């Protein structure tokens, strides 16, 4: 594992970066109040070439604002920021040739045009050499299974198809870094797996640096060796995912269906029943522990019909982590 913050070849570098928005709020008839929102508050980190990093945090934490500064759409209010040695807001066009961006919630493809027409436009916009374009397009079509979709107008694509189309569009010009904002949001399990497999392959083959914003813990688990957590504009954790679990002392939930309604299961500590609804009971247990022993014990003592284990979602992990921080325990 690469040591976060002490990377060999920093490709993305932020040093005390800030973004403050001046917001005017209507407080009465003809009355407006100005106030300042510190969306990003003195953030420093560096990402090495070829790293895949998860960038997570609750709603409004400052993730999108960071990504917008990294692409040059927004200018930082303070601090120093470099991507591939370039100051993004000063040389946005030059940087655009080296980065790719995918937003899960909106498409960069032309809605009414067949998919292939969007790619032709990207080809011209980025002045990609013809042979390179052809080669990349063929590769994307194969890896992302886009063959049947090229002549379909984007508005007719399913969400998963559209996402694959968007990822291909972001990569046709061979960017060295890819920013992904919720790339699996709303996708079914098969589409999610496909997108993740593709990203893993891309990173392994081309050493593309990836910065990934997501609410899906599995995205992080399956793709990122490192995760950064931002809250209220501040970086509150930077390290391995396993460390985050420990920091948040996160829990998994065992959902148990019994034959009939019974009093709460007497589970061995620290596992405990957190909810009962008819014959169904929910037990929380530490994420780091195996479920096997707990399941065996319940199966031996209770009339078990069915069970499933739920992974904690990222919000739950973060919420736990904040509780720890408020209690004064360091997390990173
Ligand atoms: N253009 C803007 N003008 C004023 N305030 C803004 C602007 N953009 C973002 N903010 C504020 O900055 C803060 C951070 O927003 P940001 O969109 O970066 O959060 P986020 O972590 O991406 O959240 P989400 O997960 O909901 O997308 C929020 O309080 C938001 O209201």
From TrEMBL:
Molecular functions per Gene Ontology: ATP binding; ATP hydrolysis activity
Any GO BP: response to antibiotic
Entries under Pfam families matching the protein: ABC_tran
Cellular localization per UniProt: Cell membrane
Gene3D superfamilies on file: P-loop containing nucleotide triphosphate hydrolases (3.40.50.300)
Keyword line: Antibiotic resistance, ATP-binding, Nucleotide-binding, Transport
SUPFAM superfamilies: P-loop containing nucleoside triphosphate hydrolases
InterPro entries, per database record: AAA+_ATPase, ABC_transporter-like_ATP-bd, ABC_transporter_ATP-binding, P-loop_NTPase
Membrane-related topology note: Peripheral membrane protein
Cellular component terms per the entry's GO annotation: plasma membrane
Top-rank taxon: Bacteria
Chief place where the protein resides: membrane
Record flagged with keyword rRNA-binding: no
Annotated ranges, domain ABC transporter: 12-257
PROSITE patterns in alphabetical order: ABC_TRANSPORTER_2
Protein name per Swiss-Prot or TrEMBL: ABC-2 type transport system ATP-binding protein
Organism encoding this protein: Streptomyces capillispiralis
């Amino acid at each position: 594992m690469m040591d976060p913050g002490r990377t060999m070849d920093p490709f993305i570098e932020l040093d005390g970066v800030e973004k403050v928005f001046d917001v005017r709020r209507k407080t009465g008839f003809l009355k407006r109040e100005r106030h300042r929102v510190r969306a990003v508050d003195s953030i420093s980190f560096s990402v090495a070439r070829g790293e895949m990093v998860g960038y997570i945090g609750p709603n409004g934490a400052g993730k999108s604002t960071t990504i917008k500064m990294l692409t040059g759409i927004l200018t930082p209010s303070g601090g120093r920021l470099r991507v591939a040695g370039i100051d993004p807001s000063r040389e946005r066009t030059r940087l655009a040739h080296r980065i790719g961006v995918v937003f899960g919630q909106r498409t960069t493809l032309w809605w009414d045009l067949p998919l292939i027409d969007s790619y032709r436009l990207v080809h011209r916009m980025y002045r990609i050499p013809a042979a390179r374009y052809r080669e990349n397009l063929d590769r994307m079509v194969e890896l992302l299974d886009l063959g049947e979709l090229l002549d379909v107008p984007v508005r007719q694509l399913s969400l998963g198809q559209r996402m694959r189309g968007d990822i291909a569009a972001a990569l046709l010009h061979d960017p060295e870094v890819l920013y992904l904002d919720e790339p699996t949001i709303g996708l079914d399990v098969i589409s999610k797996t496909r997108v993740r497999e593709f990203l893993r392959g891309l990173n392994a083959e081309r050493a593309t640096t990836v910065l990934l914003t997501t609410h899906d813990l599995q995205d992080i688990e399956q793709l990122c060796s490192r995760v950064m957590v931002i809250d209220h504009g501040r970086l509150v954790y930077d390290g391995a995912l396993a460390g985050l679990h420990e920091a948040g002392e996160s829990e998994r939930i065992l959902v148990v269906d019994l034959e009939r309604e019974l009093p709460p299961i007497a589970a061995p500590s620290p596992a405990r029943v957190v909810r009962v609804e008819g014959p169904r009971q929910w037990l929380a247990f530490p994420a780091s522990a195996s479920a096997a022993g707990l399941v065996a014990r319940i199966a031996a003592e209770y009339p078990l019909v069915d069970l499933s284990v739920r992974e904690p979602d990222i919000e739950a992990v973060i919420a736990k982590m904040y509780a720890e921080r408020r209690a004064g325990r360091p997390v990173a």
